[in-house]
Specification:
The protein is an alpha+beta fold and 135 residues long. It is built from seven helices and four strands.
Length: 135
């Protein structure tokens, strides 16, 4: 079993897509171990997206992710990281395949609905940031 961090970003919450996205995760037979709605503060957002700090989109990304409530989850299952990443689709929703979350619902490169850990190392780091009580 593998665990990954999944965040439904403020646009997913605002557009009322949380239930649909959770339904898709559960339909893949992945288990949601923990779930909470949170308002991410700047410090947490800047730490979470720290690898992008020097990139031109960093400020917009932090501004966006702190703009409203988000849903944080621990998702578990066989190959959970790659399964979730495949379900999410390409970062740019205009390049995401139909049938993926971003391909079906994405409207913008920055506001792209969902974040999922991209490796076991990032999953461990992100889970510790958002669910310190579980790690």
């Amino acid at each position: 079993m593998e665990r990954t961090f999944v965040m439904l970003k403020p646009d997913a919450v605002k557009r009322r897509l949380v239930g649909e996205i959770i339904k898709r995760i559960e339909a893949k037979n992945l288990n949601i171990i923990a779930l909470k709605m949170i308002h991410i503060d700047r410090k947490l957002a800047e730490t979470h997206y720290g690898e992008h700090r020097e990139k031109p989109f960093f400020k917009d990304l932090v501004d966006f992710v702190t703009s409203g409530p988000a849903v944080a989850m621990i998702v578990e299952g066989p190959n959970a990281i790659s399964v979730v990443r495949t379900m999410m689709g390409a970062t740019n929703p205009f390049n995401a395949a139909p049938g993926t979350i971003r391909g079906d619902f994405g409207l913008d490169l920055t506001q792209n609905l969902i974040h999922g850990s991209d490796s076991p190392q990032s999953a461990q780091r992100e889970l510790a940031l958002f669910f310190p009580e579980e790690t």
